[in-house]
Amino acid sequence: MSNALDEKQDTYHIELGGVTRELPLVQPTPNTRLPLVELLGDVELTRAAAQELQKLLPAETELLFTCETSSISLVHVLSELTGLPYEVARKRRRPYMQEPLIQEVASMTLGVNETLWLGSRRAENLHGRNVGVILDVVSSGGTLQALEKLVQRAGGSICCRLAAFTQGKPGVPVTSLQELPRISLAK
Question: Which of 10, 70, 95, 123 could serve as a FRET partner for 30 with CA atoms 20 to 30 Å apart?
């Protein structure tokens, strides 16, 4: 079966760790269609992705780091498999956050600017640790870069950048399990 993406398709076939899915194609901007990965609620695909990412995790990794929302289930399962703790940057300030680190996200695939928040108590857990930044999908790399800045500002060191999927050409190096296509509708 070919994984070429054309304008007439409604789904895109993937296989990951023995799990297959037909991902729906969505149109986040007027001129682009792409496969939508939704790990939330898909325990089987999430576990398969985490098991494959575990193989890529460097031995020196001491903590996993991600942002809400879609990647949380992936990092949680990866934490269970490895025994490593994890932290999550939030997309809104929570009332209990004291002296949070705040990081703007340079660009978002879906055209939405965001801000990441990491409370000082959570940031302390990154200090002096080798941190693996883990995401479900990396497209432009803006979210990944923002997470890296939070790790550095908290006093941690980046030991790896992993994603279940990449889409397009991320602006930063990242190791992924699969690349997903994009189709341009611009004529």
Answer: 70
